[in-house]
Amino acid sequence: MEETKNLEELEIERFSRFDRVVHWVVAITFIYLFLSGLGIYSPKFAWLLPVLGGLDFARWLHPWAGLVFSVGVLLMFLKWSKDFLLTSDDMVWLKNVKHYIKGEEEKLPEVGKYNAGQKVFGWLVFVGCLVFLITGILMWFPGNFPITLTRVSIVLHDLAFILVGAGFIVHVYMGTVGVPGSLSGMITGKVSALWAMRHHPRWFREVVRR
Q: Is residue 77 a contact partner of residue 126, using CB atoms and an 8 Å limit?
């Protein structure tokens, strides 16, 4: 009991200031892109636009916010892509993800700094961002490209939006309600040693050894 209390009080660094700044730039810009995209795309969500500055302003800011989002994701890719490489243990983890959903993490392979779900979401964001950027540029300057290419870009842009948007919602849930204690890592940069030991035991041991 005393050892558990000590581990709860002990904090270890999970994310640097640079990591957190880049993460929040990407998160905030994506939220704006998500909401403004809905408002621009469908009249059913037009009620969002007054909060976002109106239709004309949202149409103007959306692509610029997309560029900021893309730069942020590029920095994330340069920093974290190696950490997101999937291993054989990750494959086993994904096949048995039901245990993670049930909170039975002890039945899964030990996790390093990121679990397989976080890695998959990371690659979804990296690839999705590339699709957003290419198709977004084609849609931004439609007069400079064949109409067929622009139309295909709209479809691909929408598909990427659905996939990344769904992943983002799951990511937010798991980072708050799903796994309590996770959010502090992206706010203060630190998590409790007990949280690290329970959810990322292999990474916890690496930190302790260092």
A: yes
